TrEMBL record, chain B:
Catalytic residues as annotated in Swiss-Prot or TrEMBL: 323 (proton donor/acceptor)
Species per Swiss-Prot/TrEMBL record: Cellulomonas carbonis T26
Tree of life domain: Bacteria
Organism lineage: Bacteria, Bacillati, Actinomycetota, Actinomycetes, Micrococcales
Protein family membership: Belongs to the peptidase M14 family.
Domain Peptidase M14: 1-353
Listed name of the protein: Peptidase M14
GO annotation, biological process: proteolysis
Listed transmembrane segments: none
Cofactor names: Zn(2+)
Length: 119, 667
């Protein structure tokens, strides 16, 4: 689950199977979601929770795209709708470039929050 | 740009340095495996143990980058807005300067912005999807996944998931040190980061609310995460090892105990968080119980809430997990929006915490205070009245006072907690020393409720009038009911004696005083005569002696009308006074003629009444009839409180100053 990207150089596959992807899983009820999570062995994030939607329940999972393809083909996978939201293997390194190292170490450099101060 | 682990600590330290009167940097005692220190910032204008606290955690899971930045931003916002006297706005959510002040003055926010700095550093520089801390791998293990513990499975709440949950519960935890995300650790609270959180809860026992900010779903989760909730059987709980074999199963009719009142509060406050989030940019997180698909063991929210049941005397900490945003690491431009909505949700929680949890409310009942027609050369009192409700003691403090008015009981008044749904009146007493007739005064008093941070500035006016001499007839009930309870175990006649002693103290030497008593009949005990000097004055002494000897007649019925008629006759015969007044002290429970209605001709604006007994024991209709249909009567019960003594004195001074029963002011 935590392996680094290992795409082989020159591989044209636009959807590498070992990439981690974050998915929304929507089902009619909690049992459908449990079936999918149990079958796929997906990482359910902080907590294995679902939230209500107008059409049922949804949960969010992380798994490799290869595992996702396998899970979708199972009976449990056919009982839910799985929507890929984000290729974490792609976005992770990009986000690392958005980290500012060592801020606020200079004397007098005080952070300001993102709220508007008004009134 | 996202902050790194070092930047978070530096940011919190910079805030503490910039705002030393409203924040404090606290170093936690357990360095991480890689030697980092977890920094705690306390935000609050009072001392660390002088206000109820909210514990805010972020960064427990390393890959969830937004929560630590959100907590730093939130703390910075509060501190700057408070310092500059502004409000705060997040998108469409707007909070006024008074609301910011209320949070900073009435709460302590304990901000542990990045619980897992080692993990964050690893996630931001090596493996973006790293979740755990960086506990070294077991000896001989080479798989990188064997490093680390999931801190949110490491708390001492049903930690041993293999033993404490049903085998088929699907509980979300792992005993495998090489599980990439869910390893629970070798023992409960084995990790320094976990122990730091426990240390904060132990060290600051006034923490009553806890939010662990994670990402991403989004959703607001409330207790419990270990099983479905039930509110009927306190014994069916995490404390019962007999349930270990079945714990955590969905739909089996066995659940974790959550008292109905707590359930209502955690759901209500979760809704406040959600509403605050939505108000910012329209995102709808929704509210769910933390156990929906599978149970969880060892989580921070369940641990915090379980403490009060596990250890007697430990503070109850209501807890939530907020799963913010829709991505662990959104682009920073998107993360900024999540930071704002989280800040708005947390501010909404802070503003509602006391109100929802304790039913706390304070409402001013006296928009102005008037010392009207005070007799010259008299010191009298009036009160600013604040109606309080809820489970907390309320403190009213005078923050400003102008004009020649005094504070006889000092600047602070404590109102004992009346309880949820009940109310109590808090009185901040002011005195005025009236000068010669014609003197006037004006000013104002500002009263602040410490617990709600509401302030009211109340105008105060006063005027002095000539003091007439008054012939006062004290009309005392001695029917059988006067032996009954006055509300606190004392008899009503004992309260009567105390009330009369207040009246006698207030007489001027040239006032007159007489005593009439009644049961089913009435007789004069002391004819009206001059009160005389303050000590040993003959009229005064005779009245006190009569009252000391006043005892109920167990067989006596109650004819208030007879008492009024006899007193009226006495007062008609009193000569040499500017005016007369009659004060009837009774519980109002008349049961024999003459009735009050029978003597209406003897009742005018100078007949007054003091009701004796608990509110439910006196007869307000009779007392109102006694005072000519006005509201000009007072009630006292049990041992006279300071408030009751002041109210009584205030009332009687107006009687002696010539006020009519429709003019008297009763606070």
């Amino acid at each position: 689950m935590t392996e680094r990207p290992t795409d082989r150089p020159g591989t044209p596959d636009p959807a590498p199977h070992d990439h981690l992807v974050r998915c929304r899983v929507t089902g009619a009820d909690a049992d459908a979601l449990r079936d999918f999570v149990a079958t796929s062995g997906a990482d359910t994030g902080c907590r294995p929770v679902a939230r209500r939607t107008p059409s049922g329940l949804e949960t969010f999972v992380v798994l490799t795209r290869g595992s996702l393809a396998v899970a979708r083909a199972t009976r449990a996978g056919r009982g839910v709708v799985v929507e890929e939201l984000e290729d974490l293997t792609v976005t992770g390194p990009a986000r690392q470039a958005e980290v500012a190292p060592g801020r606020f170490t200079a004397r007098g450099d005080v952070p300001r929050g993102l709220g508007r101060k008004e009134g | 740009m996202y902050l790194d682990a070092t930047g978070i600590g530096s940011a919190l330290a910079a805030l503490a340095a910039a705002y030393p009167t409203t924040s404090e940097l606290v170093t936690t005692p357990h360095p991480t495996h890689e030697g980092r220190t977890v920094t705690l910032l306390r935000v609050g204008g009072r001392g660390p143990h002088d206000a109820d606290g909210v514990l805010l955690l972020g960064g427990v899971h390393a890959r969830e980058w937004v929560p630590p930045d959100a907590l730093v931003s939130f703390a910075a916002d509060l501190l700057e807005a408070y310092a500059t006297g502004t409000g705060l706005a997040y998108g469409g959510a707007s909070y006024g300067a008074a609301q910011v002040r209320r949070v900073v003055r009435t709460l302590n926010l304990f901000v542990l912005a990045c619980v897992n700095p080692d993990g964050r550093a690893h996630s931001q520089t090596v493996d973006p999807q790293w979740r755990k801390n960086r506990r070294p791998a077991p000896a001989g293990a080479t798989d990188p996944a064997c490093v680390g513990v999931d801190l949110n499975r490491n708390f001492d709440f049903l930690w041993d998931h293999l033993a404490r949950f049903a085998p088929d519960s699907g509980v979300s935890a792992s005993a495998d040190p090489c599980h990439p995300t869910l390893y629970r650790g070798p023992s409960p609270a084995s990790e320094p980061e976990t122990r730091d959180v426990v240390w904060v809860l132990d060290t600051f026992p006034r923490i009553r609310w806890h939010v662990d900010v994670h990402s991403a779903v989004p959703v607001v989760l409330h207790s419990w995460g270990s099983d479905e909730n039930q509110s009927t059987d306190p014994g069916e709980s995490f404390l019962d090892p007999g349930l270990d074999a079945v714990r955590g199963r969905v739909g089996d009719g066995i659940g974790e105990y959550l008292p109905a009142q707590d359930a209502a509060v955690v759901v209500d406050l979760a809704g406040r968080i959600d509403a605050g989030v939505t108000a910012a940019h329209g995102a709808v997180y929704g509210v769910e119980q933390a156990m929906t698909l599978y149970p969880t063991s060892g989580a921070s929210d369940d641990y915090a809430f379980s403490r009060h049941r596990a250890v007697v005397g430990t503070t109850k900490v209501l807890a939530w997990t907020v799963e913010c945003g829709t991505s662990f690491q959104p682009p920073w431009s998107v993360a900024e929006q999540v930071v704002r909505e989280v800040s708005s949700g947390l501010l909404a929680l802070a503003l509602a915490a006391h109100e929802v949890t304790d039913g706390l409310a304070a409402t001013l009942r006296t928009p102005s205070v008037a010392f009207t027609h005070v007799a010259e050369a008299t010191t009298t009192a009036r009160a600013v009245v604040v109606e309080c409700s809820g489970d907390l003691d309320v403190h009213l403090e005078v923050t400003a006072l102008s004009g020649p008015f005094g504070l006889p009981l000092g600047p602070t008044t404590t109102v004992p907690a009346p309880g949820r749904g009940a109310t109590a009146e808090g009185r901040v007493w002011l005195t005025w020393d009236a000068g010669p007739a014609g003197t006037t005064a004006s000013g104002s008093v500002t009263v602040r409720c410490v617990e709600t941070d509401e302030s009211w500035t109340v105008p105060v006016t006063a005027d002095a009038v000539p003091r007439p001499t008054t012939a006062l007839a004290l009309v005392l009930d001695r029917s059988g009911s006067m032996a009954w309870d006055a509300g606190d175990g004392r008899s009503r006649v004992e309260v009567l004696r105390e009330a009369v002693s207040v009246a006698v103290e207030l007489l001027r030497p040239d006032d007159g005083v007489g005593v009439v008593r009644f049961h089913h009949d009435a007789d004069t005990v002391v004819p009206v005569q001059q009160a005389g000097p303050e000590t040993f004055g003959p009229g005064r002494s005779a009245a006190l002696a009569a009252v000391a000897a006043h005892v109920p007649d167990p067989a006596g019925a109650t004819s208030i009308g007879d008492g009024v008629t006899t007193a009226a006759t006495q007062l008609a015969a009193a000569a040499g006074y500017d005016g007369t007044a009659m004060v009837v002290l009774t519980d109002g429970r008349q049961n024999a003629p003459a009735w009050v209605a029978d003597v209406a001709g003897s009742i005018d604006g100078r007949v007054f009444a003091v009701g004796l007994g608990a509110p439910e024991a006196v007869d307000p209709a009779t007392l109102t009839a006694l005072v000519d249909g006005t509201g000009g009567w007072v009630a006292v019960s049990g041992v006279l409180s300071v408030d009751e003594r002041f109210v009584l004195a205030q009332y009687l001074l107006q009687v002696l100053a010539g006020a009519t029963n429709d003019q008297v002011v009763i606070t």
